[in-house]
Design brief:
Length: 423
């Protein structure tokens, strides 16, 4: 019986890996330009981090976490999202200092036990940014605008930014009271599997995907109607800053992020190339998360997106093939010249060229075929007769032209070859 990958966890290689690397490079460039610095947190964290941070009423904690007891008897969890670990790292390593903002970004694997589907696997990859120790509406707008800029630079021109506010603890408490009342009055229309959540998480009704919940949500009051003066003012400032940053958006009062730590600004970015699962990512403000994890209150805002979904959207609009061709193929079919071929190969490699050599010393004809398959631009040919005459052959595979390279000082051969390459 063949051993296969675990369900919902996939290998990435070849052209797919080239696309992933291309996109990750742009992510790092855009975030770094905006002052964010990369952070890497452990895949395994204490389960308590997510119970306290993500929230015990969330679907992630209730249904989706990979949690187990380690050999020391501690409950650990494979991280299901990136924000709580980044905040934990900031607290543990003393990154937060009075009056100083901290900007961090991450790219890495996350794990959730859910039904695998296109763009949503059990091991998936997220990229995200966290702007810590800032309460400014400008910071919210920058985080949102940065995602719009990122997608434009990747080449996705049809993305839609949707924003809302989920209020503060005070105004949300008043709103949830009215929402619970409205849901109880329309209990016959509430799906049975959601009814137990009316008291604990009534706003999640807007996050349900079934047709009945969608129709019901059209008749319910929204959070935006209950914002307190401070939350409303903050939301208006975010919209103003977004316009100043030339970022198109629409207000969607039904946005409910799937994590309990959000307050005030909430947003999502969608792409029509993802079908019904249209969200590329989302985020918002989480002013209470530091306090939930035992630290001083620290206002912060962030975003997280799914890398698999971003790759799908990119490939739907871009058919470009990334070259994996080699610059130079070093061909040697004569055993006495093998050491010299190795020296040339290594010398070209050290000069920054992409170089291939046949490790098995196959026949001349086989190596020519291998060089062609590798897409080599040039072939360095070491033949016994040419070598005795003090030269080797450099062939341009694209034009078919070939030139003779004189062999003088052995240590300078790679240097002489690289000078003649038109790369």
């Amino acid at each position: 019986m063949k051993i296969k990958s675990v369900r919902g966890m996939h290998d990435v290689f070849g052209q797919d890996m080239a696309v992933w690397s291309h996109i990750e490079q742009i992510i790092r460039q855009v975030y770094t330009r905006a002052g964010y610095r990369e952070i890497r947190t452990p895949i395994l964290e204490s389960t308590d981090l997510f119970l306290r941070g993500v929230g015990e009423t969330s679907d992630i904690v209730n249904k989706e976490m990979y949690t187990f007891m380690d050999r020391g008897g501690d409950s650990v969890t494979m991280r299901p999202e990136g924000t709580a670990p980044v905040v934990r790292a900031a607290i543990e390593n003393g990154l937060i200092q009075p009056g100083h903002e901290v900007k961090l970004f991450y790219i890495g694997p996350m794990f959730r036990y859910e039904r695998p589907q296109k763009g949503r696997q059990r091991q998936f990859h997220q990229y995200g940014i966290e702007h810590l120790n800032t309460s400014s509406a400008f910071s919210d707008a920058e985080v949102i605008a940065l995602q719009s800029l990122l997608y434009r630079e990747i080449g996705l021109l049809n993305c839609e930014v949707e924003i809302s506010s989920v209020g503060c603890q005070e105004c949300r408490q008043a709103y949830e009271g009215e929402l619970k009342k409205a849901l109880q009055e329309k209990i016959a229309q509430v799906p049975e599997n959601f009814r137990p959540r009316i008291d604990s998480a009534p706003m999640r009704i807007f996050d349900q995907k079934d047709e009945g919940s969608q129709k019901l949500s059209e008749t319910l009051p929204t959070m935006l109607q209950y914002l307190c003066e401070q939350c409303l003012n903050h939301f208006e400032q975010v919209k103003r800053h977004l316009k100043n940053m030339d970022t198109q958006f629409k207000v969607n009062p039904k946005i409910v992020r799937g994590l309990d730590y959000y307050n005030s600004t909430a947003f999502e970015v969608k792409s029509s190339h993802l079908g019904s699962q249209s969200a590329l990512g989302g985020g918002g403000r989480y002013d209470g998360l530091f306090e939930d994890l035992g630290a001083n209150p620290t206002a912060s805002v962030g975003f997280a997106g799914g890398l698999e979904r971003l790759v799908i959207a990119y490939q739907a609009t871009n058919t470009e093939k990334f070259s994996d061709k080699t610059d130079v193929f070093v061909l040697c079919a004569d055993e006495p010249l093998r050491d010299t071929a190795t020296e040339i190969y290594w010398g070209l490699l050290k000069r920054g060229l992409q170089v291939t050599i046949d490790h098995e010393m196959r026949s001349f004809k086989s190596q020519i075929k291998k060089a062609d398959k590798a897409g080599a631009r040039y072939v360095v040919i070491l033949g016994e007769r040419e070598w005795q005459e003090g030269k080797l052959i450099l062939k341009d595979f694209a034009s078919g032209d070939q030139i003779e390279v004189p062999v003088g000082d052995k240590t300078e051969i790679a240097s002489e070859i690289s000078k003649k390459l038109k790369l």
